[in-house]
Amino acid sequence: MKSALSSCLLILLGIAVSAYPANALPAFAYAVSTTCLNSSSGFNSKLEPNIAGTAWTESFHGVGSGTVSGTTSTVTEYTISVFGAVPGSQPSIPPAANAYTNDITATLSPNTDGSFTLTATNWHGSVTAGPNKGLTYIVTNASGAYALKVWEGKNGVNVEATEPSPVVQKITLSNNITFERICATSAVTTSPLQ
To answer: 87: cis peptide before it, omega within 30°?
Structure first.
């Protein structure tokens, strides 16, 4: 089932942005690692796949750069992912590697503990290599907003990680195939020295 096989494509979710004020940070770069649990049948309230045998995992590693204007960040990210065969999954998912380009807009808001929260507001991209090369996609939130918590570091280096509560994201491919995922992300951002 070729269209079902296409649903195994996973798009990264990783975003990172600096916690510096917009007037102090014209640009930044980052590296991100993400692991996601994906399901073509979606997830229940216990964060389990709705139908057994419809889930697979995928790991992503990417780099990106972006700018900050006020409380809004815009990034472009280049990502590679790999996933292995999932025993007993339906449809059968063969091992594969993919490459993606992500364009993400996010908002940045301060937290009471001195950290910041980065929330993705507009996320789309394209598959540049792999079984689904040429497809485009959008990422939306099925439950809550996808956010990274940002801890400001020294000398222009910051650390980001996903929020403590899992968020279900919905991936919609340009061939109308959709699936959901839950991801754990960490990233390191570098910016010009103050």
So the answer is: no
What residue ranges do the domains of the chain occupy? 2-190
Q: What's the token pair of residue 50?
A: 């709705």
| pLDDT tens digits along 153-194 | 777 777 777 766 788 999 999 999 898 999 888 888 886 544
Cα dihedral: 62, 185, 157, 144 (round 10):
120
Fold designation for 2-190: Porin (2.40.160)
Joined together, the tokens standing for residue 176 give 């109308």
User: 94-110: per-residue pLDDT in tens?
Assistant: 778 999 999 988 888 88
State if pTM tops 0.90.
Answer: no
Phi, psi of 14 (to 5 degrees): -80, 130
**CA-CA distance, 120 to 109, in Å (whole number)?**
12
Are 156 and 133 within 8 A, CB to CB?
no
Structure-token match 């907003």, residue found: 145
Phi, psi of 2 (to 5 degrees): -65, -40
